[in-house]
């Protein structure tokens, strides 16, 4: 009887407020005043949390190394995109210099961690060799490799062209006395090369180029080489460019201003000043660090390293009967999946069945970051070739994915898929609509229709035939096809998502109220203000914010989860008169998402699905394995506990 009672109590969580979920005790008369944090500073704090995963005692070696590569790629994104506002508005201020100091500190720590990893890797038979450690025969081989495969693709540049140098390419500087030559290594050649005949042996391309500088300098000169790289702001010249204008807009993006310069620590001071002045940078925007620069190349080691030093594959649950006949399944009930623990392949199967079923008349999809190979996109092509009415809202302006999406637009057009015109706002919604024999079915998600991300990110998928939801999804597609703003009845899009969140927060702004918000980014001022008012009226507030949060309150423990999987689901839950209302969707709570994008936020109407989402939220609130507690003054790690919020159904 005790076991039955305990199980019943756990399932009743949706109708009962979690007690002390954060282990915090509120003061009798709380007074919460927000400490403001810039979006850029908050994001750098998140990237420090990423960097700290390299020290996780419960992670295998190569998984810890993977996070070093993720951190490096993140920092490049910071300087190419996320710093844009501060660069334009605050450059030179003390707050901006503080951002640079934090980024520099992380970079120096990453260099130290890289050296530590080299020692650990050696203990597992993986060796990153210096050219001096190569045999004579190996040096001869790599000399031939450089001459045949690398030198013909390498650019030799005069110093006068410094202002035109490319973003994120790896360069070397050389000369006798004055800076005379710049060498740009080809991006098509791997940064890390396997040593033939040495299992686990690698050598860096940059180190080999240093060894044979005579192959790259005029008149076969043998001069020292010094490594450097720079990052430019990457923004489309015309953010509202339609498909016929997009290629030209992409070409113009390379003209962004330089925001960051990295030099190896021994870089000659006079040459360093020459680069800094020519690139119009301030001293604090130039980092001197130990080579190698750009540690993202460690992903090669992770990919080729032994499986024993990686995570064991998780057991993926498949919904019984859904893939075989999703339409019959949805005629009976909704289905909510939690990826990657539950099969992302169900989303692909839904699209595949829509393409194959002769009763399907029409298919609509929003596509944002779908990658180079995509099963859902192929199913849409198959459906169009079968004579079905197929149209896609393919977002050509998805940052850094524009070229891939431009290619997909041509593939779609060639197959008879209508690519809808780009509206004035980006379409970031995640929706797949199918009409079959007059009956509508939809998939709504929190993540991109990307086969890789769908198996690496934690996201929610809702499949439903609920008439109110399917009608709104059709209205969403129809309005944007007609270049009109969508007017929806049940779903929320645009600024109405903000209205929903604020109204729901205000409704729970009392001592019995309870609010749970889970976002990647929570930076919208009106929403944050509503939260502060609710806190000061006694509401219980739980915030799970992965990356950026621009307000922190003393006495409120905000949680950030960073673990094996990237937390990506966006969820809002409100306990209204003793009953939970739960919403999920594609939107983060940021001004750009709510004002300059078309997102979709959808209610979880099915009782079983709602209970499942709330149990996931409860597990993450209780997590003490992957957590950071964010306060105005610090971020405190909570590792090593027994509650893993990144495991389905197991707190």
TrEMBL record:
Ranges for domain Polyphosphate kinase N-terminal: 38-128
Pfam families reported for this sequence: PP_kinase (PF02503), PP_kinase_C (PF13090), PP_kinase_C_1 (PF17941), PP_kinase_N (PF13089)
InterPro entries, A to Z: PP_kinase (IPR003414), PP_kinase_C_1 (IPR041108), PP_kinase_middle (IPR024953), PP_kinase_middle_dom_sf (IPR036830), PPK_C_dom2 (IPR025200), PPK_N_dom (IPR025198), PPK_N_dom_sf (IPR036832)
Leading EC class: transferase
One GO molecular-function entry: kinase activity
Keywords, in A-Z order: ATP-binding, Kinase, Nucleotide-binding, Phosphoprotein, Transferase
Composition bias, Basic residues: 1-10
Domain annotation Polyphosphate kinase middle: ranges: 180-299
Enzyme Commission identifier(s): 2.7.4.1
Domain Polyphosphate kinase C-terminal: 327-484, 505-636
Region called Disordered, residue ranges: 1-28
UniProt superkingdom: Bacteria
PANTHER family found in the cross-reference section: POLYPHOSPHATE KINASE
Protein name: ATP-polyphosphate phosphotransferase
Organism: Meiothermus taiwanensis WR-220
């Amino acid at each position: 009887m005790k076991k039955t009672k305990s199980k019943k109590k756990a399932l009743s969580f949706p109708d009962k407020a979690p007690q002390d979920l954060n282990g915090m005790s509120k003061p009798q008369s709380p007074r919460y005043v927000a400490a403001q944090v810039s979006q850029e500073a908050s994001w750098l704090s998140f990237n420090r949390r990423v960097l700290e995963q390299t020290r996780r005692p419960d992670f295998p070696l190569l998984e810890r190394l993977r996070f070093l590569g993720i951190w490096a790629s993140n920092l490049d994104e910071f300087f190419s995109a996320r710093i844009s506002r501060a660069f334009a508005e605050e450059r030179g201020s003390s707050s901006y210099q503080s951002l640079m100091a934090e980024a520099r500190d992380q970079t120096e720590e990453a260099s130290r961690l890289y050296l530590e990893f080299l020692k650990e890797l050696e203990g597992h038979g993986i060796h990153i060799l210096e050219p001096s450690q190569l045999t004579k025969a190996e040096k001869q081989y790599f000399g031939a490799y450089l001459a045949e495969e690398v030198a013909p693709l390498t650019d030799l540049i005069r110093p006068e062209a410094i202002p035109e140098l490319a973003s994120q390419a790896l360069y070397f500087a050389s000369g006798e006395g004055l800076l005379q030559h710049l060498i740009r290594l080809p991006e098509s050649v791997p940064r890390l090369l396997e040593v033939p005949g040495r299992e686990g042996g690698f050598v860096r391309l940059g180190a080999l180029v240093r060894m044979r500088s005579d192959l790259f300098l005029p008149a076969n000169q043998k001069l020292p080489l010094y490594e450097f790289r720079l990052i430019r702001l990457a923004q489309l010249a015309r953010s509202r460019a339609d498909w016929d204008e997009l290629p030209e807009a992409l070409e113009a993006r390379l003209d962004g201003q330089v925001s960051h310069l990295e030099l190896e620590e021994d870089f000659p001071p006079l040459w360093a000043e020459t680069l800094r002045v020519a690139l119009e940078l301030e001293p604090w925007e130039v980092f001197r660090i130990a080579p190698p620069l750009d540690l993202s190349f460690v992903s090669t080691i992770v990919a080729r390293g032994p499986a024993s030093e990686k995570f064991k594959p998780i057991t993926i649950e498949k919904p019984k009967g859904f893939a075989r006949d999703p339409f019959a399944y949805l005629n009976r009930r909704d289905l909510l999946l939690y990826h990657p623990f539950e099969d992302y392949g169900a989303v692909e199967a839904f699209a595949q069945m829509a393409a194959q079923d002769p009763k399907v008349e029409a298919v609509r999809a929003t596509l944002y970051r779908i990658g180079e190979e995509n099963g859902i996109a192929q199913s849409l092509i198959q459906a169009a070739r079968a004579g079905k009415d197929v149209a896609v809202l393919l977002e050509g302006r998805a940052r850094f994915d524009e070229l891939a999406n431009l290619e997909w637009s041509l593939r779609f057009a060639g197959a008879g898929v209508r690519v809808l015109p780009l509206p004035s706002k980006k379409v970031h919604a995640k929706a797949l609509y199918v009409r079959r024999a007059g009956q509508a079915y939809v998939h709504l998600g929190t993540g991109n229709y990307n086969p890789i991300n769908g198996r690496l990110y934690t996201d929610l998928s809702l499949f439903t035939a609920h008439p109110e939801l399917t009608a709104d999804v059709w209205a969403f597609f129809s309005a944007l096809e007609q270049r009109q703003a969508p007017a929806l009845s049940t779903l929320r899009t645009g600024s109405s998502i903000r209205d929903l969140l604020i109204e729901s927060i205000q409704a729970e702004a009392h001592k019995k109220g309870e609010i749970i918000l889970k976002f990647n980014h929570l930076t919208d001022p009106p929403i944050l203000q509503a939260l502060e008012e609710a806190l000061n009226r006694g509401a219980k507030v739980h915030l799970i914010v992965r990356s950026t949060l621009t307000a922190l309150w003393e006495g409120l423990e905000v949680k950030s989860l960073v673990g094996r999987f990237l937390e990506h689901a966006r969820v809002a839950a409100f306990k209204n008169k003793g009953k939970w209302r739960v919403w999920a969707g594609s939107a983060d709570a940021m001004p750009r998402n709510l004002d300059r994008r078309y997102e979709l936020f959808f209610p979880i109407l099915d009782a079983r699905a709602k209970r499942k989402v709330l149990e996931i939220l409860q597990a993450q609130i209780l997590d003490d394995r992957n957590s950071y507690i964010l306060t105005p003054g610090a971020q405190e790690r909570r590792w090593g506990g027994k509650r893993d919020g990144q495991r389905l159904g197991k707190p």
